[in-house]
Amino acid sequence: MLTFRRTLPFVAAAAGALSLSACATVSSVERAQATADQALSTAQAAQSAAQSAQSAADAANAAAARAQTTADQAAAAAAAAQSAAQQGAARRAGERG
């Protein structure tokens, strides 16, 4: 997307120059068309890269959410184990004493 934004002014300038020149040669029109084609190709590649990056970011976000869920479950299990251990120690202390 950034490359497209950089390239767009050049394409617009080339198109403007062609529209202002009364005697555009075939060669100059072909060069302008080639420049516009290259700009379009670059913009399409940038769009594809941006979509790939978005997909990767979405996947990373989903993985982070799964990791958070797992961490929350582990914390809950640890708290339950600690509570059970404390209750068991209290029962044993009550039986001894």
The largest sheet, given as strand count, sense and whether it forms a barrel, is: none
Can you tell me the residue ranges where pLDDT is under 50 for at least 5 consecutive residues?
none
Question: What's the pLDDT, averaged over the residues?
Answer: 87
Radius of gyration: 33 Å
Can you tell me about this structure?
With 97 residues, the protein is mostly helical. The protein has one domain (2-96). It is 93% helix and 0% strand. It has two helices and no strands. It has helices spanning 2-20, 26-96. The longest helix has 71 residues, at 26-96. The protein is rod-shaped.
Structure keywords:
97 residues; rod-shaped; mainly alpha
Write the layout of secondary structure elements.
Elements: H1 2-20, H2 26-96
Helix pairs in contact: 1-2
Question: Summarize this, please?
Answer:
The chain has 97 residues and is an all-alpha fold.
